[in-house]
Design brief:
By secondary structure, the protein is α+β, with helices and mostly antiparallel strands. The protein has a domain of about 240 residues: FAD/NAD(P)-binding domain (3-Layer(bba) Sandwich), CATH 3.50.50. Helices cover about 35% and strands about 30% of the residues. The chain is built from 12 helices and 19 strands. Strands 1, 2, 8, 9, 10, 11, 17 and 18 form an 8-stranded mixed beta sheet that branches. An 8-stranded mixed beta sheet has the order 6-5-13-14-15-12-16-19. Helix 1 runs parallel beside helix 8. The longest helix has 23 residues. It binds adenosine-5-diphosphoribose and P-hydroxybenzoic acid (PHB). The site of adenosine-5-diphosphoribose has 29 residues, from helix 1 and helix 8.
């Protein structure tokens, strides 16, 4: 078996890359460990930056997103019982789209299969071999039989727990762990606000988000080793009511909880993102805490770069874009890593009662909601900095 680009992992990164390559006439094979239903149902974040929305539209996979996604022009920051709106559109001319990651994944799988793309599920024992400067090979097991796929390039888009990253020698990893996690719930209830609410409260952080006009997505800061069985529905609702309260009598609409899960919080960035013919993209190379919803958006930014670099290679024999990939991608990755670390520190309560840190976070929140410069900084990072032209974000 042979293909031009072998892609390990069918998350948003791998699937979008395969589609962007297809649009440039480059063929690929996507190998995914899980089954299709699992990948399509996995509940993840749901905020698309302005550039992610544009990229999905340009790739021809934006139809359902444009019909069902919710356009938001701002967000709310809530602390000390007061709500403050950050008007993204007034500050930056951009907005965001609220549309679940698993919906993006469904749209990408449908687009790949409609175009005759080769996406294989339930693939076991992926191993990479022959990653020398000239060629690359993926070995895997499908339906019990061992196969070898020869490729010009292998792309590791197999997420944070994937195998691809382990094939890069001399990897440097930068890491930060946080002393908390998020308990996320999906409620069969209409959202209680038409925008997202990021709340800092004495009991900890809470987030009100949504998936549709009838489904609310919410999160509570909990401890990293939290046991889900200690969170019956009524305890979850009591905490959400307490942490999302404001001084205008904000009312949270309840409904049956459809899904509950714990998300750990970590920042990790590895470098380089390339070795020979192997490239990493998305969560395989970096993860961010979910505050600020940068994970999928970074994955999209990585594969935009990679698809252009590989397109340039096949169309014009260029290898400069491929050679620059790590440096170009990491610039945006570190910006988003800083932003999500900053949002996380500003909005969460330190479990060890760090009184100094508490005052700093409150001072920072006060600054963001009272300074146009700070509000604009939050808004431009949240809606997504423009894809760099040269080295300027202007
Ligand atoms: N072989 C084949 N597939 C694998 C392997 C493996 N050894 N290991 C992992 N995978 C698959 C996973 O099952 C998953 O479907 O790779 C895929 C990786 O997808 P994601 O984890 O969604 O990562 P990515 O596409 O980079 O998207 C980043 O996902 O985790 C969120 O918040 C993150 O929104 C961000 C987005
Ligand atoms: C979500 O809707 O799941 C979501 C929204 C914003 C975040 C994180 C997650 O910062």
């Amino acid at each position: 078996m042979r293909t031009q680009v072998g892609i390990v992992g069918a998350g948003p990164a791998g699937l979008l890359l395969a589609h962007l390559l297809h649009l440039q006439g480059v063929e690929s094979v996507v190998l995914e460990r899980r089954d299709r239903a699992y990948v399509e149902r996995r509940v993840r974040a749901g905020v698309l930056e302005h550039g992610t929305v544009q990229t999905l539209r340009e790739a021809g996979v934006g139809k359902r997103m444009d019909a069902q996604g919710l356009v938001h022009t701002g967000t709310e920051l809530r602390f000390g019982l007061r709500s403050h709106r950050i008007d993204f559109t007034a500050l930056t001319g951009r907005g965001i789209m609220v549309y679940g990651q698993q919906e993006v994944v469904k749209d990408l799988i449908a687009a790949r299969l409609d175009a005759g793309g080769d996406v294989r599920f339930e693939i076991e024992d992926v191993a990479l071999a022959g990653l020398d400067p000239q060629e690359a090979r993926i070995e895997f097991v499908e339906d019990g039989a061992r196969h070898v796929l020869d490729c010009d390039f292998v792309i590791g888009t197999d997420g944070f727990h994937g195998v691809s990253r382990s094939y890069l020698p001399d990897l440097v990893s930068y890491e930060r762990s946080y002393p908390f996690a998020w308990l996320g719930v999906l409620a069969d209830a209409p959202p209680s606000s038409h925008e997202l609410i990021y709340a800092r409260h004495a009991n900890g952080f809470a987030l009100h988000s949504m998936r549709s006009p009838s489904v609310t997505r919410m999160y509570l800061q909990v401890s990293p080793d939290e046991d889900l069985s200690e969170w019956p529905d009524d305890r979850i609702w009591a905490e959400l009511h307490a942490r999302l309260a404001d001084d205008t009598g904000f009312a949270l609409t309840e409904g049956p909880l459809l899904d509950k899960g714990i998300t750990s919080m970590r920042s990790v960035v590895v470098t380089p993102m390339q070795h020979g013919r192997l490239f990493l993209a998305g969560d395989a190379a970096h993860i961010v805490p979910p505050t600020g919803a940068k994970g999928m958006n970074l994955a999209v930014a990585d594969v935009r770069l990679l698809s252009r670099a590989l397109g340039g290679y096949y169309a014009a024999g260029r290898d400069d874009l491929l050679a620059a990939y790590t440096q170009t991608a990491l610039r945006r990755v570190w910006r988003a890593t800083h932003f999500s670390w900053w949002m996380t520190s500003m909005l969460h309560r330190s479990p060890d009662g760090d009184a100094f840190g508490e005052q700093l976070a409150l001072a920072q929140l006060d600054y963001v909601v009272s300074s146009t410069a700070m509000a604009t900084s939050l808004a431009e990072n949240y809606t997504g900095l423009p894809y760099a032209q040269g080295w300027s974000y202007r």
